[in-house]
Amino acid sequence: MKLLRYQLKAEKSLMVFEFISEGPKGEIPKIIEFTETNLNGFYNLAFGDKDKLTGKLNDKIISNNNDAEKILATVVSSVYAFTDKYPDAWVYATGSTSARTRWYLMGILKYLDEVKNHFHIFGELNNDWKEFEKNINYDGFVVKRKKN
Amino acid sequence: MTIKELNKRKTPIVIIDNSLEKYKDVILFPEKLAKANEVLKRIGLPKLHAKKHHR
């Protein structure tokens, strides 16, 4: 049996995570960042590739390392880690392109029942928030951990 | 802990790596952050519907 997600590393505050994607293109470092927005407690989630030579980050690159599902599962697990530490945080995410947003949405759909057990989840549609439903192309989405 | 148990955990085991401290308080994806701020400004926060508690 293989691990379904990558090992995460983070700095102490759990705002910045790193993991290494492994596949036919080799090892590709990825960075996940939770950044607080202008509103306290509302964070933006972003992630992208880290260039091994320059250290520069790129959230538009398509690395095609045949591990998209494992990457998505890893990003989802980082949201669990982050909201364990910051249980009142709202976490917003959208793709750097509409195709990538759709990829995120497909990933959420795969875990939707599980995610809904632990998070409130809303989709951004027509300048409003809607309770997240299947088969709708949202522009972005936001989650908040449910209280136990 | 077995791989099966690790896969079942919702919250992952996270290794603290001090080399990542250099990224803390640095906005690594400014375009995404600007977009999030713009969305917040435009539509605000979603409304959570609190469950009614019966006594």
Can you walk me through this structure?
In chain A, 26% of the residues lie in helices and 36% in strands. Chain A contains 2 helices and 9 strands; from the N terminus they run βββββαβαβββ. Chain A has helices at 68-85, 98-118; strands at residues 8-10, 16-23, 26-36, 42-50, 57-58, 90-93, 119-125, 128-131, 140-145. In chain A, strands 1, 2, 3, 4, 5, 6, 7, 8 and 9 form a 9-stranded mixed beta sheet that branches. The longest helix of chain A has 21 residues, at 98-118. Chain B is flat, with a radius of gyration of 19 Å. Chain B has helices spanning 3-8, 30-43, and one strand at 14-16. Chain B is mainly alpha-helical. At the A-B interface, β1, β2, β3, β4 and α1 of A face α1, β1 and α2 of B.
Topology (SSEs and partners):
The complex is a heterodimer of chains A (148) and B (55).
Chain A: E1 8-10, E2 16-23, E3 26-36, E4 42-50, E5 57-58, H1 68-85, E6 90-93, H2 98-118, E7 119-125, E8 128-131, E9 140-145
Parallel strand pairs in A: 4-6
Antiparallel strand pairs in A: 1-2, 2-3, 3-4, 4-5, 6-9, 7-8, 7-9
Chain B: H1 3-8, E1 14-16, H2 30-43
Spell out the key features of this protein.
heterodimer; A: 148 residues; alpha+beta; nine-stranded mixed beta sheet; 9 strands; 26% helix; globular; B: 55 residues; mainly alpha; 2 helices; 36% helix
Shape of chain B: flat
Report Rg of chain A. 15 Å
Radius of gyration of chain B: 19 Å
Mean pLDDT of chain A: 89
Overall shape of chain A: globular
Structure, briefly:
The complex is a heterodimer of chains A (148) and B (55). Chain A has 148 residues and is α+β, with helices and mostly antiparallel strands. Helix content of chain A is 26%, strand content 36%.
